[in-house]
Amino acid sequence: MRDSFASQTEMRRLFRSPALARFAFAALLASLPAGAVEKISVKGLFKDKAILVIDGRQRLLRAGETSPEGVKLVSASSREAVIEIDGVQSTRSLGTHIGSGFAPPQSPAVKIWPTADNMYPVVGSINGYPVNFLVDTGATTIAMNSREARRLGIDFAVVGDATVSQTASGLVKAWVVNLQRVRVGDIELKDVRAAVLEGDFPTNVLLGMSFLGRLDIRREQGVLELRKKY
Question: Which of 211, 188, 223 is nearest to 108 (CA)?
Answer without folding.
Answer: 188
